[in-house]
Structure formats: C-alpha cells, structure tokens
Amino acid sequence: MPRWMIVVVVVAAAACGGSSSGSDGGGDATVYPFGCAGSAACTTDNVCCAMPAATTTFGCVATASCASADQITCDGPEGCGGDTPVCCGSEVLDGTGTFPTCGITSIGTTCKAASACPTHFAGACSDSSTVQLCHVKSDCTNAATNLCCTFTSDSASLTFCVDAATASLGHATCHD
Questions:
Q1: Which long-range contacts does 93-96 make (Cβ < 8 Å, 24+ apart)?
Q2: Which comes out higher in pLDDT, residue 134 or 56?
C-alpha cells in the first residue's frame, strides 16, 4: 500500500465522523462540528486528540493534555477563516521502521494559511505528509492540487485536495 494511503487511513480515523452543533446534552458546553474518530464530537473545552503509538488511537481529552501537533481542530475549511482559511492535516514520522511502515511522532489538523499547507506525501520514515482537507472542489484553490477527492481504505476515508494523477493512482472519488 502506498505511504500516502497509510496517511489517509490514519488521518481519516481522526477527522471523519458525523457533524454536531450546539449542546452535547450534558450542560452548556458546545461541541466541535465534527466527530472524533467516527464517535461523538468533542466539547470545545476538550479536543479530539491523536495518540500515536504502535496502534494510534483518538479520543476527546482536555486541550492542555494533548500536544498541539496531535490536536484535530478542523475537518474542512468551514471551521477556519481569516488569515488561516484552510484545514491542514499533517503526519510527522519519527524515522523508525521501514518505509512505508514507519513510526509516527504526531498526527493533527489545524487551520493555516494556504501557503503554509502545501500537499506533500512522505517518501521516507524521516519525512512528513501534509494535505489540505476539503469537502467540495471549490475548497481547493491551488492550481496544482485543484481536485477535492475522497480516498478510502477499508472503513476509513479522508477527503483532501490533490492533483489528477494522485487521484487516479489512489482510485479516489472526486467531488464537484
């Protein structure tokens, strides 16, 4: 399996899920507008946190308890704005293992400027991967990666901006 498909599977586990808004039913806390690892959305006093290990897990934890690089704070550009209009997903590898089966230092999403989120797929265990998350083609404003496509592996999926060759090689479903 290509390394970028592994990234898709891992980041997808964090970013996918149903959407919610308003109260979680347990008080006055509001929730993020996306689920954490396919589960319920985290309240905004917590964050969806990636916990990289031999088997990476995800869960809602106190924001201060989760390293910023492991926080899942957006699942598309609608959660971003101003000077940081894109939702940028990243995976940093730790240099261990044999590519494409590498150890992971961090996995997260955050709002960034488009210029700070160039699409890049790791090519070695000492590299990192970066993707711009999207929901529709108009979310993808970079001419080189102007397609919004969903990559699926087993039950996990992730939708991000890519070029036509990558979409074709990964058997992605692209959106208008």
A1: 93/122, 93/124, 93/125, 93/126, 93/127, 93/128, 94/125, 95/125, 95/126, 96/125
A2: 134
